[in-house]
């Protein structure tokens, strides 16, 4: 595993690179930490060049600032990493808020995306008017206004199935706790306002797959994936487990990502040399 800092506009992004083969960029959600994906990155490094990173302002990366963080900036950061570390083209997997960033990247910078897997984007604005799930971001924002990051974090965790049933790596947990004000104070408005660019995504020149975990049926972060897939006319798939299945059970989750990413990359017959030997 190679690690370092990558300079982007106004920040330096901590990143890790593993393996060889087609580039696969993994984008994390709330907390923005590369450590979420350590397990699946190790699993996939035999077939892919796996790139993980701490998103701007999170954990070991710089660039917090005082202003709200918009999704266009997040997408530009991802594009810069693909240009600088992957030769200008990569498969992309995003989980939760990372899936929202992946959808934004795919719409704004399609030239650098070879395929997108968007896992459980909490894009509640695509749900019907009057759906109680549409209040999620506002309710957490109110908790932050009243009680700060600890109160917002508790409420957030209570909405995510499976959290509290397994232990996070200690170093990841410590970094996550340090990211609370950035998440709820600066990143939250961008995620809350997100609507997918259906026109751009429906004509994307690469495959897109939406998906959600088998244990998350009916949740505010699973149902939008079905609606987005329907609106832009792409496949929807069921993944194993919970929202962050890749933390407690990385091998099984990585197997699902492996199948999709391999199919996306080889759909035009462009089989990497490493798979021909």
From TrEMBL:
Q: Where is the AB hydrolase-1 domain?
A: 22-186
Keyword Hydrolase annotated: yes
Database matches in InterPro entries: AB_hydrolase, AB_hydrolase_1, AB_hydrolase_fold
Give the GO molecular function terms. Answer: triacylglycerol lipase activity
A GO biological process of this protein is: glycerolipid catabolic process
Keywords (alphabetical) are: Hydrolase
Does the UniProt entry include the keyword Transport? no
What Pfam family does this protein match (any one)? Abhydrolase_1
PANTHER family in the cross-refs: AB HYDROLASE-1 DOMAIN-CONTAINING PROTEIN (PTHR43433:SF5), HYDROLASE, ALPHA/BETA FOLD FAMILY PROTEIN (PTHR43433)
| Annotated protein name in UniProt | Alpha/beta fold hydrolase
């Amino acid at each position: 595993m190679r690690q370092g800092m990558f300079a982007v506009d106004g920040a330096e992004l901590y990143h890790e690179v593993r393996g060889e083969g087609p580039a696969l960029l993994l984008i994390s959600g709330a907390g923005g930490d590369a450590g979420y994906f350590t397990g699946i990155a190790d699993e996939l490094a035999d077939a892919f060049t796996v790139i993980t990173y701490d998103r701007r302002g999170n954990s070991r990366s710089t660039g917090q600032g005082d202003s709200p963080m918009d999704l266009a900036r997040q997408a530009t950061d991802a594009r810069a990493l693909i240009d600088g570390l992957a030769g200008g083209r990569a498969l992309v997997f995003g989980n939760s808020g990372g899936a929202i960033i992946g959808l934004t990247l795919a719409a704004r910078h399609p030239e650098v995306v070879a395929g997108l897997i968007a896992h459980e984007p909490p894009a509640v604005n695509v749900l019907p008017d009057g759906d109680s799930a549409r209040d999620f971001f506002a309710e957490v924002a109110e908790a932050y206004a009243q009680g700060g990051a600890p109160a917002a974090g508790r409420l957030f965790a209570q909405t995510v199935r499976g959290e509290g049933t397994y232990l996070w790596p200690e170093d990841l947990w410590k970094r996550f706790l340090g990211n609370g004000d950035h998440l709820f104070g600066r990143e939250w408005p961008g995620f809350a306002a997100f609507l997918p660019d259906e026109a751009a995504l429906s004509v994307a020149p690469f495959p897109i797959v939406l998906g959600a975990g088998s244990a998350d049926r009916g949740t505010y972060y699973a149902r939008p994936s079905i609606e987005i897939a329907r609106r832009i006319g792409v496949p929807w798939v069921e993944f194993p487990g919970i929202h962050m299945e890749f933390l407690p059970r990385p091998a099984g989750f990585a197997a699902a990502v492996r199948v999709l990413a391999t199919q996306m990359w080889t759909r035009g017959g462009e089989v990497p040399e490493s798979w021909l030997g």
